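Open question from group meeting: does this chain pack into something compact, or does most of it stay loose? Before anyone orders reagents, we agreed to write out a predicted structure and look at it together. Recording both the input and the output here so the notebook holds the full record.
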Amino acid sequence: MRTEVDRLEKRIRERFVKAFVTYHLIEDGDHILVALSGGKDSLCLLEMLGKRAKIEKPQFKVEAIHVRMENIAYETSTDYLQRFCDDLGVPLHVITTSFEPSDQKPPCFLCSWNRRKQMFNLAQELGCNKIALGHHQDDLLHTSMMNLFYQGRFDTMPALLKMRKMPLSIIRPLCLVEETDIRRYAELRGYEKQVKLCPYEKDSHRDDMRTLFENIQQQNPEARHSLWNALVRAEKLVDIS
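Structure tokens returned:
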């Protein structure tokens, strides 16, 4: 008889596999660098990729990067991340960096930009052709709402994005997985939580979109599928131009 954690892992794995097959996220010969923040989403992503890499087809390699930002009080135990990666047989690269504060740009933008810069640099040094990010379906749906309500365009973070200025693709293999499943799976698997959360984590419209989306779902349980299908029909989930 399957336990709850077994059932959850099976559901997450099935949606993970469906995503990389549907959107051609993983192929033979890929060398994938996983952005490992230490949060539940990136840990789940690394677990799914690490386990899948041990299966014969498709054949691909996985490595992980954890970027520490000196001037942001956001901490994760690198000892725990190292043990987590070791258990999966995935090499871990820990990089410490910082950014200069600016009056023109918010700290979230500067922090994110510098983290991405470190990821892109390491990916190219290692010869990786893909960077995997831990965004789940809720992230993509909330982003589409933010873009629509605040920028007047219907768009989201694609499941597959081929970079135009470098030989890299960004993939989001958890794009079909719901956040509630990842949250419960993390609890059952005993994922270690971060020591400190980012002080700017709630300082954005994203939290507002999460609350709004939850309210909409209470009124219409099919809202998730309707919005996702709209993104599919509008061809917003793959960007290879």
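Observations to bring back to the group:
The beta strands are 30-35, 60-69, 92-97, 130-132, 160-162, 169-171, 238-239.
The chain has a mean pLDDT of 91.
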